[in-house]
Amino acid sequence: MPGRNFLFIPGPTNIPDRINRAMHLAQEDMRAPDLPNFTKPLYEDMKKVFKTTTGRVFIFPASGTGGWEAGIANTLSPGDKVLMSGFGHFSNLWIDMCQRWGLNVQALEVDWGEGVPVERYAEILKADRKHEIKGVFATQNETATGVASDVKAVRKALDDASHPALLFVDGVSSVASMDFRMDEWCVDVCVSGSQKGLMLPTGLGIICMSQKAMEAAKTAKLPRCFFDIADQIKSNDMGFFPYTPPMNLLRGLRESLNILFEEGLENVFARHHRYAEATRAAVKAWGLKLVAKEPKWYSDTISAVFVPEGFNGTEVVRTAYRRYNLCLSIGLAKVAGKIFRIGHLGDMNELMLLAALSGAEMAMRDIGIKVEAGSGVAAAQEYLRASAKPSVEEARKI
Fold it and tell me: Does 158 share its domain with 291?
């Protein structure tokens, strides 16, 4: 098909040309004597994305799932009790991983469309006077449902109960796109991946650990080898790696951080919120509903949209791909066939987003969903015009 593919899934996301060029280089010696000049600043700058001065970043050749495993295996022991909640495909996969590791998992079932049940967490933590719970888990952004959770509120629940449990956060589809504050929220383990807000190919599982988590790693007894941070520390302290690193991806990560810092992290977060609001305006104009039940649950990186009764969301995705070379995402697990998802994160501008909304609108009409032609696109256009900076008048003076 002529022209370019339009990628609007929740990850992998579009890769900027600058990052592609940074990765397009000859292979290099990962043990070159001057490599620490590159790696040490890379780790320090990645800490800025997590908003930490005291935490430590580890980069594994893996996906976000590998990051999950690294965070768990390095801090917990067999039989440890952990508090978790499932409200989407990926938060449930995290629960499944902890169960496979032989942890004592207290998993709360939550309606898909809501997020971490902070009030229920608070009750359970206050009742746990013997501090049997060793880890509290929160998915900041559930990729399957477009639901965001309040990590700060989870920290408050821990503090109000004077509970010493470690706080684990899945930030795979939020870090570098939505505000995350490792130090301020006293997060102990945060997991991210390269293929979403960092605008890279899949292949880097990036975790940040607090000093408290680092101390826990000294006595944790879950088995680990490839993901052992002790091996990473020995090599990273000298600027190297315990095994062959994906140097092309690391060079891309360097350029990704340059791009994020040039825009400014707060501006990055504001941009993502603006495009999410434009998408939500389109969904409302179509007469459809988001999976996220209330504004407090709205994600700024993914919108999951219910299709009307009698229609299949997967057909919207297939039609968009086959007819318009547009990649949207299907519904997973409980919402399979009931929704389609629009990823609006990473490298994106207004016209890119409008193209995706236009294609989604056409695909829905093609399979018989009664949305008015141009309605969603027009609603998004008007929101983007009204929220644009600088204004048209200011722009004319530039």
Answer: no
